[in-house]
Each structure stands twice: as structure tokens, then as C-alpha cells.
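call fold(seq) -> C-alpha cells
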Amino acid sequence: MPVAAKEIRLAERPRGWPTDETFAFAEVELPAPGPGEVLVRNTFMSVDPYMRGRMNDVKSYTPPYELGKALEGGAIGEVVESGVDGVSPGELVLHGLGWRSHTLTKQFTRLTPIEGVSPSHFLGALGMPALTAYVGLLDIAALKPGETVFVSGAAGAVGSLAGQIAKLKGAGRVIGSAGSADKVAHLTGKLGFDAAFNYRDGNVTELLTAAAPDGIDVYFDNVGGDHLEAAIWAMNDYGRVAACGSISGYNEEKRPPGPRNMFQVVTKRLTVRGFIILDHGDRFRAMIDEVGAWLAGGELVAEETFVDGLENAPAAFLGMLRGENTGKMVVRL
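ret:
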């Protein structure tokens, strides 16, 4: 039986910050699933910083969104009807066709519910943000016990997990930056960071130097810009940067200037390595096993900020870019 579905489309490519005009709402009729397909009713969808890049018509590691077509992103849903042997209605699946109330897909991952853990965590603490934090710290930055770690954007989906994983893996000191006094208190209180600062309180280099008087060994970079410059100044010899994102410049119409102290990369023999989590799917099982155990055992705190209703997904996306979330921003359908 056909299903009336709602979706959010890219109406125009934004210049600078997206606006209400960037998005358009539409209704479509979905047929019954064909062989190999499942019809899914989405229950949770993700909004993430990388989606801003996909709104631009530029070559990148993932293709740009198409004008007039529905946006895409991680989503959790319940199978309504199945054309796949062994997959039954009611099962939970993870897939990449969010920004919709319902979808037909052949590309999905069946999920086994974890007692006491919300399925929404498969978009955050057990999903792409967790894998990003896990791989960035352990594989890209090669964290060693006793080292000092600095995480920018530390109250967000990836940063909040990166700081906690660093502590659980034996980091000697973990420092975070965030955009408000409440978030700073959250980092040092609930999440167990050793120190944190509000980057709006002054010069980031000075704030980081005060928080890490003996320097840092690892920088997990979610922000770029002045945070990367500050981290390079604070780096000890042979320090490592896991370059995950540069959200400080995503909505700038003019390209922001790069760090002015790049020669420190030479004199301190630093390693700066960018990474894309799509290249590291082979680490997903190890992450699920280890992070899932921490989560189930209460050793890791998984914060979520919920926005209700598909119609409010654009507002959730913009709120996430402005840093209004604590932990993972999730749209609850």
C-alpha cells in the first residue's frame, strides 16, 4: 500500500549561513518495497556539521546535495514493510536517508537494541561521532597514556566523546574548549575533563596556555582557525594533531586566514593529519564493543539535545552550527 511521506529538500545553495529559504518541504508517495528494499518509518535523524559542506556545489570527499532533491544524513527507523528475506516489520535499522519521515532503501544496517540504551545513540555515542572520536584519538593521533590532550568544540557530539575516551584510555590531562560558561562547567563536572575554557572569554592562545602550562601532546581539532593556531603554539615537540573539522569557517563567505605559526610544525617536528571517517569503517566493530561497554557500564556519558518534529530539522541544523547543542543534536520524529 503506498505511503504518504514528507521530506525536506535543498531549495537553494546558501552563501554564508543557511536561511529558511535554503530548505523546502515536500510530500511524496512511496510505493511498497520491491525485492531487496525495506520501507522505513524514521524515528530519529542526525544533523551534522559536514552537511553544510554538502550544500555547496564543490568537489569534496562526498558529493554535494542536489538542488530540488531531499537532503540526506544518518537516521534510525523502524521497518514498516520488507522486501528482504529475514528482515521483518518492527526491526530497527540505521541508514543514510534522513530528512524524511519515511524512506525506501536497500542500504541499511540492522541494529540490535542494547538494554537501557536509547536507539538514538546509534547516531551519536555508538555511531559516526563515536567512531570519529575513537579513530581520531587512537589511530590518527596515536594517543599514549599520560599525555595531555586538547579537544576543541568539546561539548559537541564528537568532542564530548573524544575527551572522555582520552580519559578512559589513560590520558594524563584532558582540556576542552566550549562556547559558554555552562558548557565549561559541564565538561569539568559531568564529563570529567581536567580543565576547560570558554573561547569567548579572550585570546584562545592565552586561554589554552593557562590551562596547559606544560604544553599539549595531542590536539583533536573540530574547529580550526584560532584554535588550531593556539594548539600549534602549545604543542610539545613531536605532538600530533588529528584534524577532524573546521567548523569556525564553514559559513564564512570569505576564506578565513590559516594559522600564522605553521613553521612551528617544522621546529617542533609536529604531525598534522586530516582524516575522513568514511575511510575507517573497519574499526566500527571494535568501537562498538569498547564504547558500548563503557556506555552500558556508566563510564561514558552520552549527552543528547533533542528537537522534535521533521519540520524543525532546519532549525536543529542551524542550532547545531551555532553550538546550541550539548552532545549530539538529534531530531526526534
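The mean pLDDT is 94.
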